[in-house]
Amino acid sequence: MLKEADEYDAIIKASSLDDVTLSKHAQTIINAFKVTLPSTKHIRSVLRTHGNPVDFDLFEHADFGFIETTTRHFMVLVESPRNPLLGSINGRTTAIHTTTIVLNQLFISFNDVLALYWIEKEHCTTKKRKWDGVIVSVKDQRLSISLVEFSGGINSNNTQAKEKHDITKLYNNMVKVIENIPEEQKKQVFAVRFFSKIRTFISRSFFCCIPYIRDFILHNDNYIRCEHSKFECPTTARSLLKYVEEVPNMLKWRDAVVNHALQN
Question: How far apart (Å, rounded) are the C-alpha atoms in residues 212 and 260?
Fold first, then answer.
């Protein structure tokens, strides 16, 4: 029993991400969003009050820049006359409004460490398999850090069969990437998957656009899948505030991806 407990603790330790230390500007604006009303008028007021600080630095305040830029992006979509996230659009168009902008902004301060490539990209570790996105090390682009897959769009090619196919494709190829990592390096690979579907709660329907942020790690010859963040791409002011609450988990995952690239 003790051995099983020790193994469990070892797995938890191996799969956990380090906590993130937020900059003062990021912590201030997150705290302000926690107490604001769920309306774009009040969200804009928070951005006006706390946005664009005079001492802003792209690297030092990367977390704040990510929050400010992506919050403004989704807020504009929420207020637009015909929010594309509430319609029917294909996977790649959906990605432009969601996964692509989120990941580009998440890593903008680290583009000297990581390169992001989009749409129908191949990587040597997965041979001719095409990906919606790949994140590779700038220092050695043979090192695949993360795979990105769009499992359909919004009300377009987003069936359960499509999701099952993409999950199988993603996991099988994450294993291939790990197998190609040299023994002296940490056997870990990251992934992002977007899936969109309609869910009904009681009698109200809403569109749920969900990026899943996760990783695979090899521990004692066992593959461990860890889901580090899952969030609904905002389509209302209330869901926009929920999105901001999830930002610290996204930043923890980002730091793990960056550190993995720096250490290999």
Answer: 19
Please, what sign has the CA dihedral across residues 66, 68, 69, 72? positive
Report CA torsion sign: 131, 136, 141, 143. negative
Could you give the CA distance from residue 246 to residue 230 in angstroms, rounded to a whole number? 8
Contact 90, 153 (CB under 8 A): yes
Walk along the chain (264 residues) and give the pLDDT tens digit of each residue. Answer: 446 667 777 777 777 888 999 999 999 999 999 999 999 999 999 999 999 899 999 999 999 999 999 999 999 999 999 999 888 888 788 888 998 999 999 999 999 999 999 988 888 888 888 898 999 999 988 877 888 888 877 877 777 888 888 888 888 888 888 888 888 888 888 888 888 743 222 322 233 344 556 666 776 777 788 888 888 889 999 999 999 999 999 999 999 999 989 987
Helices (H), 118-217: 160-179
DSSP β-bridge partners for residue 63: none
Edge to edge, the sheet with strand 114-121 lists 114-121, 131-137, 144-151, 188-201, 204-219, 222-230
**Helices within the chain (DSSP H only):** 2-15, 24-35, 40-50, 62-79, 91-97, 99-106, 160-179, 237-263
Q: Are strands 114-121 and 131-137 parallel, antiparallel or unpaired?
A: antiparallel
Of residues 162, 163, 139, 135, the one with CA closest to residue 147: 135
d(CA 157, CA 147): 20
End-to-end CA distance of the chain: 36
Q: Is the separation of the CB atoms in 47 and 67 below 8 Å?
A: no
